[in-house]
Amino acid sequence: MAxxxxxxxxDLAPWMTQFPLGKALNIRGIAxxxxxxxxxxxxxxxxxxxxxxxxxxxxQLPFYLKLMRHLADRGVLxxxxxxxxxxxxxxxxxxxxxxxxxxxxxxSQMEPQPVHCAEVGTMLARxxxxxxxxxxxxxxxxxxxxxxxxxxxxxxxxxxxNRQLMQDEIxxxxxxxxxxxxxxxxxxxxxxxxxxxxxxxxxxxxxGFFDFYFAGCDTWLFDVAVTINDWCIDLVSGELDMTRxxxxxxxxxxxxxxTAEESQAWQAMLRAAAFRFWLSxxxxxxxxxxxxxxTPHDPTHFERILRLRISQPVPALPQA
Length: 320
Ligand SMILES: Nc1ncnc2c1ncn2[C@@H]1O[C@H](COP(=O)(O)OP(=O)(O)OP(=O)(O)O)[C@@H](O)[C@H]1O
Ligand SMILES: N[C@@H](CCO)C(=O)O
What we know:
- With about 325 residues, the chain is an alpha+beta fold.
- It has helices at about 10-15, 60-75, 115-130, 145-155, 160-175, 180-185, 220-230, 240-255, 260-285, 300-310, and strands at about 25-30, 35-45, 45-50, 90-95, 95-100, 185-190, 200, 205-210, 215-220.
- The protein has two domains: about 10-100, Phosphorylase Kinase, domain 1 (2-Layer Sandwich), CATH 3.30.200; about 115-310, Aminoglycoside phosphotransferase (APH), C-terminal lobe (Aminoglycoside 3'-phosphotransferase, Chain: A, domain 2), CATH 3.90.1200.10.
- GO terms for molecular function: kinase activity.
- This is Homoserine kinase.
- It is an enzyme of class 2 (transferase).
- Pfam families: APH.
């Protein structure tokens, strides 16, 4: 279980009085996730999710919480943050920032079919469009600047072959980010971590996107690439599953058509999306933090995907 900060019902009861949710009746740690401490809490008003943020600070958090509120207000299915009596969405608990959000119904769909991929594609495009008038700007904190700072910290842990791959890819991505094609890509708030385990389904019905704590302003296409690289692959080989890829891309395109520049950038973005998670997984693997129980994600999964996206042609984006 990824509970870095323990919270008991006795700790919670006085803290909860500032929220309009009645008494806290029960709390239980959630046995998944690797970034934050998460708990389901039962209150007199129903079930909610309490998150204690282990790595994000009070200056960074309003972006995520206000973005979720903004999206929810525009009909995008996301958890709604609950304000305390002072209107604050983020309040200290055990000295760390914490927030309460509504609990989504359903469960994660870990074996998605084309119908699930289409639902995700539609909601992702709606989310990008709904974010256009969000006024707070915060960069994606796991984008090129972070890659450039982090690569030197992990190179020493890698085999000679992987060191070469990482150095070649950071050089490629650094150069690509300077091209007119990259600079022409549409940008805005993106989720940036929309994996299978960050979306809820009730049967074939999508009930919400959650875990917005890697969100930031970046290219919309990067968000699509992150999502494709998790939802539309064979998890063992990392190969793209064309039926699921087409279902997601066509559904997205029907709401927010892809541009010519996005078509040109597509393979580079699929590489960038694979690289981002290879790097963060390698970093987490060699810099573990304390947790009551923690299984780090396997870095070799995204090393494999990155090699495939470099070496194999990728399916074209739908054209306007
Ligand atoms: N709003 C919500 N509604 C219902 N369940 C939720 C909600 N938020 C989180 N959960 C549950 O808690 C689990 C862990 O949450 P989350 O993925 O946000 O953790 P994390 O530590 O940020 O994880 P990650 O490793 O994905 O970054 C989810 O898998 C889900 O079961
Ligand atoms: N989705 C990330 C974990 C951080 O949310 C990964 O699979 O590496």
